[in-house]
Design goal:
The chain has helices at residues 23-30, 67-79, 94-106, 120-126, 164-181, 183-197, 201-221, 236-245, 253-271, 276-289, 299-306, 335-343, and strands spanning 2-7, 10-16, 36-41, 55-58, 87-92, 112-117, 131-136, 139-146, 151-154, 295-298, 318-324, 327-332, 346-348. It is of the alpha/beta class and 349 residues long. It folds into 2 domains: 2-161, Rossmann fold; 164-348, Dehydroquinate synthase-like - alpha domain (Dehydroquinate synthase-like, alpha domain). The longest helix has 21 residues, at 201-221.
C-alpha cells in the first residue's frame, strides 16, 4: 500500500511494508547514491540493519529531546563526512523522528530525511506533516521547523513488540483523527475496537491508513499551519499544558492527548457550542479504550502552562473545539471557562 501527500513544494510518500519486505532495501533502492545515516535510540537500536556503517544510537526518552542531542546528531554527520546530499533515516518513535528531521532540516541548510516510525503514535501523527523540533525550558517542541520527509515507511510488525501503554499512546491520535473526520470514522473505530485490542495487524494497518488520510487531507491544504491545519491540534493545547505542568512525568503524550480531548469538549460545552451528547459519547469511548480522564495535577499549574502555548496568535491562545464530529472550529476562550474545563479533569483542583 502506498499513499502520497503534497506539502507545498515537497511530496511525502507513505509506504506500508508487506510481509517479507525490508526497509533498508527500499531505502537503498530509492536513494542509491546517498550516504545514509541511521538514527535510533536505545529502544529501537535492535532494529538497525546489519552492515550499515553509519548508525547513531541516542538515549531514549523525552528528556533527551534537546538541542544538545541535535548537536550530537550534527557532530556525527560531520564525523562521517555527510554532505547536503546525504540522507538521515530516523528509526524510532516520535522523539527520534522529530529530532532526526530537525537535524536534517538544519544540516547544511537541508539534507534528506526518511522516517521509519516504530510506535503507533509516530506512525499516525509524528511522521506525516513535516513538523520537527525539540523541547526547551519545559515546553514541548518550542524550537523547530517544518520539514516533510520524502519517504515514510510503515512497518506494522513493530507494533507487536510494544507494551500496551505505547499502543494506547497512539490510539488517542487515531480517535482524534476520527473525531475530525466525522461520525462514519468514529463508527469504524468502534467496530474495530475488539480487533485493535487483540493486536490484529490488518486492523492496525486500516486505522493507520485512515488516520494518515485524514491528516494528509488537512495538511495538503495548509502545510505551514496558517489556517485549517490548526484543527489537528484538537485536544493538544490542554495536553501540552498537562505534560508541562507534570514535568513530562506520569503521562505519555497520547494519554495526555486523550485527557485533552475530553477537556476540549468540556470547554466547548461550557461555551454552549459542543453537543453534550457528543461530549458524553467521546468520554465513554475514551473510557472503553482505558484512558484516564482525571489527572492528579494542580489546576493553576496547568492554566499557567496553557498561557505559554506556542500557537498563540496576537497574544491570545486559540483553542480547537468541536460542535460535533466533523464540525471543528477555533476560538479564544475566557479564562474562567479554561480554568473550569481544566479543574473538571483534575482530582486536586
Amino acid at each position: 500500500m502506498k499513499q502520497e501527500f503534497r506539502l507545498g513544494e515537497r511530496v511525502s510518500t507513505v509506504r506500508f511494508l508487506e510481509q517479507g519486505e525490508r526497509a533498508e532495501e527500499i531505502i537503498r533502492r530509492e536513494y542509491p547514491h546517498s550516504l545514509i545515516i541511521w538514527v535510533a535510540d536505545e529502544n529501537t537500536s535492535r532494529y538497525l540493519p546489519a552492515g550499515e556503517p553509519h548508525c547513531l544510537v541516542l538515549p531514549a526518552g523525552e528528556a533527551f529531546k534537546t538541542m544538545e542531542t541535535i548537536l550530537r546528531i550534527v557532530d556525527f554527520a560531520l564525523q562521517v563526512g555527510a554532505g547536503r546530499d546525504s540522507l538521515f533515516v530516523a528509526l524510532g518513535g516520535g522523539v527520534v523522528c522529530d529530532m532526526t528531521a530537525f537535524a536534517a532540516s538544519v544540516y547544511m541548510r537541508g539534507a534528506g530525511v526518511v522516517l521509519l516510525p516504530s510506535t503507533l503514535l509516530a506512525m499516525v501523527d509524528a511522521t506525516l506533516g513535516g513538523k520537527s523540533g525539540v523541547d526547551y525550558r519545559g515546553y514541548k517542541n518550542i524550537i523547530g521547523t517544518f520539514y516533510p520527509a520524502s519517504l515514510i515507511i510503515i512497518e506494522p510488525t513493530y507494533l507487536a513488540s510494544l507494551p500496551q501503554r505505547e499502543i494506547m499512546g497512539g490510539l488517542a491520535e487515531v480517535v482524534k483523527h476520527a473525531m475530525l473526520s466525522g461520525e462514519d470514522a468514529l463508527e469504524r473505530i468502534e467496530r474495530l475496537l475488539p480487533d485493535i485490542k487483540a493486536g490484529n495487524r490488518d486492523a492496525f494497518s486500516s486505522i493507520i491508513a485512515e488516520s494518515l488520510t485524514v491528516k494528509g487531507a488537512v495538511i495538503e491544504q495548509d502545510p505551514l499551519e496558517r489556517g485549517i491545519r490548526a484543527h489537528l491540534n484538537l485536544g493538544h493545547t490542554f495536553a501540552h499544558a498537562l505534560e508541562s505542568a507534570t514535568g513530562f512525568n506520569g503521562w505519555s503524550h497520547g494519554e495526555a492527548v486523550a485527557w485533552g480531548l475530553s477537556r476540549a469538549l468540556h470547554a466547548g460545552e461550557l461555551l454552549g457550542e459542543t453537543d453534550p451528547g457528543y461530549r458524553r459519547f467521546i468520554d465513554e469511548l475514551l473510557d472503553r479504550f482505558g484512558y484516564r480522564r482525571y489527572a492528579e495535577a494542580d489546576t493553576s499549574a496547568i492554566l499557567e502552562a496553557v498561557g505559554s502555548d506556542k500557537k498563540k496568535r496576537g497574544g491570545e491562545v486559540r483553542f480547537v473545539l468541536q460542535k460535533k464530529a466533523g464540525d471543528t472550529f477555533t476560538r479564544a476562550l475566557p479564562r474562567e471557562i479554561v480554568e473550569e474545563a481544566i479543574s473538571g479533569g483534575c482530582l486536586n483542583p
